[in-house]
Pyruvate, phosphate dikinase
Amino acid sequence: QKQVYAFHEGNAEMKALLGGKGANLAEMAKVGLPVPPGFTVTTDACRMFFQQDQQLSDGVYRQITEAMTELEKAAGQRFGNADHPLLVSVRSGSVTSMPGMMDTILNLGLNDETVEGLAESTGNPRFAYDCYRRLMQMFGSVVLGIEAHHFEKLLRRLKEEEGVEQDQDVSAEGWQKLLSLYESCYAKHAGRSFPQNVHEQLRMAVEAVFRSWHNPRAQFYRKINHIPDEQGTAVNVQSMVFGNKGGDCGTGVVFTRNPSTGEHGLFGEYLINAQGEDVVAGVRTPLPIQTLQAELPAIYEQLVEAATRLEHHYRDMQDIEFTVESGKLYMLQTRSGKRNAQAALKIAVDLVNENVIPREQALLRIEAGHLDQLLHRGLDETAVTDIIATGLPASPGAAVGQIVFDADTAEQWAREGKSAILVRPETTPEDIHGVLAAEGVLTSRGGMTSHAAVVARGMGKPCVCGCETVRISVEEKRMTAGERTLEEGDWITLDGATGRVIPGVIPLREAEMTTELLQMLKWADDIRTLKVAANADTPQDARTARMLGAEGIGLCRTEHMFLSPTRLPIVREMILAEDTAARLQALEKLLPMQRQDFEDIFRAMDGLPVTIRLLDPPLHEFLPNIGELQMKHLEMTVHQEGTEKERAALKKLLAKVGALHEANPMLGQRGCRLGIVFPEIYEMQIEAIFQAALKCTEEGVVVHPEIMIPLVGHESELKLLRARVDEVAERVLGEERQNHHSYKVGTMIEVPRAALTARKIAAYADFFSFGTNDLTQMTLGYSRDDAEGKFLTSYIDQKLLPHNPFQVLDTEGVGQLIEMAVLNGKMAKPSLRTSICGEHGGDKSSIQFCQRVGLDYVSCSPYRIPLARIAAAQAAI
Ligand code: ADP
Ligand code: MG
Ligand code: MG
């Protein structure tokens, strides 16, 4: 089987087999660009290599030897020949570009004999010995694992002795001396000498490059970029061209457009009289590419021409490596250039305007991460030096403020005009006002879907969570990370996009809706068929959502409205009420507040639908912590503190909280179950909604209220509650009901049984909204609050699961329930509207799924809306 391809046998389509570098070298050769000849050993051979105890099979080795013979002919030189030695580079090249993660060796084919031949045939001994010492250095570290600093130390000492600073000023004798020092370095650290047999060099080098696929750096890079381990790397063997031969030689890297601004025009750096990695390694400071125009004008012109050709050929910004040998330009690599968010967007829009790519293509190139970067404030990276910890990048954006360890202080400080960063071991719904007041949130426990993360994302607030290396003592108001201790009031900076925690104040860059972004979003809106709505709980969120393009509110949670410090006492009063009369009294106080909430939201969403979900969480979430109460009660009793009356009150409270306590609250008395057992709560909410609708309509606001019942599992639940909505509507709206208000009633589908019986439930629903957070929790039987901290991370590490199912929809399992429910629901009621409102509504691959199963819209947090608009367009293409 063919495992070795000469460059002239391959092309850009063969990336999977030849790796990106190999396929692109072949393509460049094919279109006639000056590429030094060579060949590629396939990724297949790499996989075989690992199956066969890291040995090159005889078959593959034979093909390599044959290809070398061809290469010798093409280059007019012989490998290992003392007079005209062929030298080659052995270069790694994976399928997905992993810049700098694996290894490459240059100048292979030099030994004590051929180096003399090279010196003689070029008339340049200094150059020949320089090449040889580079080979010994690279071969030593890549193949034999000798640590690079051993070589670097010897090189430094040599330069000191010679009194020179730059590598290129070292004399031929100096390099010769270094060669013998390197030889003893081999003996000392590898227990062997440098192989003089060039074929042995080649074999060892190819094997080492294959092995570099599994070096820790490459493994880590693959893990964070979701690159499969099975892919393997190809190896490219290419005849050398030399940028280190003299003043008319050099090497450099150029981008066809500026990778940080997107600006059109060559951008890059080069070094005269240097080889390969000198540019990136920072041995010398390279010159900006524009100076090449003055220094070697003919070469510069050729380079511009080649760059333009490559960009047109690949229809994308290219990152190109080149080398100039004695006044001749060679192309050594091209690939799509990495770029930051702003550049990505500008380049994509520019390429459309230049008629290089169609709009669809431009849209497909936008990555979720790009939008995250653009829509949130970021750090001025030049000021980031001291990172004390890195947690999960839970909610993008950067925040600077003073540390506080509790929500009340955060709120207090915000009122005083200070910027606070809320630092907590974890957050609970009780901390919400602190999250709201703070600039950003840092937690030491909890994953990407922990309470803090979900809430912060919803508010577009930067959040770093699960930062396990940070120890937080709320009592002592102190956090420690390694050696560092920070106290309340100390300044700190968070980067929610990367999870970095940085002490002190780092300047921020403002987020901006650039013209390019607006253009791209417009193209997306023209193409997409899925509608995009927002999860928004406050008028502020609603306005943000609308500004970012929301076509309605798909989920307005009402529990957050109950958690503000002014309302919580009344909510507690309502919950702890002895009888219905007392409960009604408390609810009466809440009614006008709720009405006000809804009025403001309706106004903000004038003309667009607003889906309001009735109260969902278990009641005890609004009550004091039972453990703390027990402690307090114990203390009071033991020390006989407080008055008799106070103790009795506490005891009563404890009894009530105890009575509401549940072993599995997420499977307990919540959602519609709550609304059925305590009808007056939902009635108050429904009344508030309709009163607000009435009031707004009078003002001329166009209101489309939709009432959503959570946690339905049986159609009887929805039947009952729907009837109650209609009743209240009748009562509140009276005649208006027929005239102005077309309200809708629907349900969340989040209990598996509801999905299974969708046909029956559809009879009472105008719409279904898939609450995929709970649906995932209940379908997989994973507790959303605990799974990540316990087993989920380990599951993902062990690849038992492809993703965290709370972030990326489990289309195979949970998705099947959704698909079935949509189908059966629409069959029973063709007008049924379907949507998704879990965290997944803002995830690209999940949106793809929503498009496929025919949902009408996705609903996500306001700051995910631009992303959802783009993802919806991508799904439609
Ligand atoms: P990486 O994948 O880390 O970029 P490369 O395989 O591209 O590694 O090679 C490292 C450096 O060596 C690059 O600057 C490249 O241009 C240079 N190089 C590779 N092969 C040759 C060659 N045949 N002649 C001259 N320079 C080369
Ligand atoms: Mg390279
Ligand atoms: Mg739910």
